[in-house]
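FAQ: What does a multi-protein file look like?

Like this. Sequence, then tokens, then the next protein.
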Amino acid sequence: MYDMYDPAQLRTFLAVAQTLSFTQAARRLDVRQSTVSQHVRRLEAAAGDRQLFTRDTHSVELTEDGEAMLGFARTILAAHERAAAYFFGTRLRGRLRFGASEDFVLTRLPEILESFRTDHPEVDLELSVELSGTLHERLAAGELDLVLAKRRGGDTHGELVWQSTLTWIGAPRLRIDPERPVPLILFPAPGITRARALEVLEADGRAWRIACTSASLSGLIAAARAGLGVMAHTRGLIPPGLVPVPARAGLPELGGVDFVLLHGRRGGHGRRERAPGAAGPSDRSLADALAAAILAGGDRLHRPADTR
């Protein structure tokens, strides 16, 4: 009555759902784009010929059935991984230094990390939450093993997790006077969003002033809710109580933004212990294991945390 859902097809589906791009999904999975399309078609057939994506020449979007498939795909793949680890797997242990951008403070990243800790209780996970620019610097200095952060403009390094656009946001009643400098709410340097905001305003010839600077996303949100000014922020992560600034304000476009996983030189201070009697696969680093968990749950990174 029911077709079995192929884990390879489910992984392909998740890659497309997270990047909203068949091309980017193919790059992430290191397969041809035709393979991605084939996997999606077969999964749709296995789901009773339900359409999982709407697709045109410019965009890819999840359908209602596609949204439903997200939860099922994560559950099936998680069960598949647990079974493989039990019968053929290895036990991870050691220390992993993971850095995450401030952007993900209000998302479901903690759920992903909690699941990772449950699956790998002997891993000492050290979390640093900082600006993307700072994380890049610490990774280059060998102080972190894995980083989830914005990619610098023009950079091609890293494994793409999610693509979005930046937008200007502020309090609903905020009004921007085109005759006066734009009041900005900014992260300090070397924040990537800060640099982009100043760059586009300078290129547009628009005067600006700094109304608030904070290294904490919570601090910036509080300032924006108080109506002190506008802030550049990821469109898919707009905090409650703030809204996109209307086009009539005349602020320049901020462009797109990529969130990527970047590995350090050492990739984690740990080892894998093979389960008794198991002839498991070749070793992989702690960073690889956490990266796989983040990629599997990447769609949660642009969904707000449950605050109930």
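And here is the next protein:
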Amino acid sequence: MAQAWKCSGLRWSPDGPELLWDGGRRSALTRGKRVAFSVVPGCGRTCVGARGHACPVSAVVPGRSTGARCEECARLDRAHSVAADTIADDPRPYHVYLAWFGPGMVKVGITAQERGSARLLEQGAVCFSWLGVGPLMAARRAEELLRAALRVPDRIPYAEKRAVRAALPQSAADRAGEVAELHGRAVALPAWPESLVRKPLRVVDHVGVFGLAGVPVAVGGVSELVAGGAVGGELVAAAGPDLHLATGDGVVVLDTRLMTGWGLVPATGDGLTVPLRPFKEASGVQDGLF
């Protein structure tokens, strides 16, 4: 059998998406590329550890987990995390942003200024604009202000993002409309934190980067990998952690977070022998070793 590799996730580089593998290897994911791998037969999915350290007990984790961590490693991973609100003294400046994923789906969030737009690419934001920049706690207050005053959520489930990607407005102006409207209302709020510098509206569109223009409607998404199962297809689009693959059974979406923790080897063919969750249609919209 070929040497097994372990995937450590998808990363958005300046050149586009790429899969990272334990040991430092990277696989660029260009559109039209064939993506095909299989899970080592008889193996289990093991915890990926926390903060650069291996799981001390190599715990078995569920196939449907997108975190691929056992309970203890998940706790350690979030013990020093901005996202989990366990850091209050980070001296770095933070951006506050508005991200749009489809009609009626706008969220507010924060990201370290030094990361640029990487966080927006990782989330699969179709377009976004910065709102302000300043100290972490001021950015957090602005995030809370928008949730309370304008009812803007700070999270949108991936299932909802995937359901609308094949039916996005064709015009960049139409895609930017909701972000522009909310940006104007947000920066005009009287309770805006004084230490947070307002940023002018500048909507950045990721449709071209993700390859979503004309992307076919997906028939479903991989719900989990299984020992001995295989995935194969041609990459037609990539957004956030998701790969849209054209297979013999139609386009399917693979959340690359499901790949971590498994031993993977190269495969042949353009089909799937792993569990698939069909997407429900609603008004014409459906609700990597290579």
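Q: Is there any per-entry metadata?
A: Some entries carry free-text notes. For the entry above: The CA atoms of residues 126 and 206 lie 5 Å apart.
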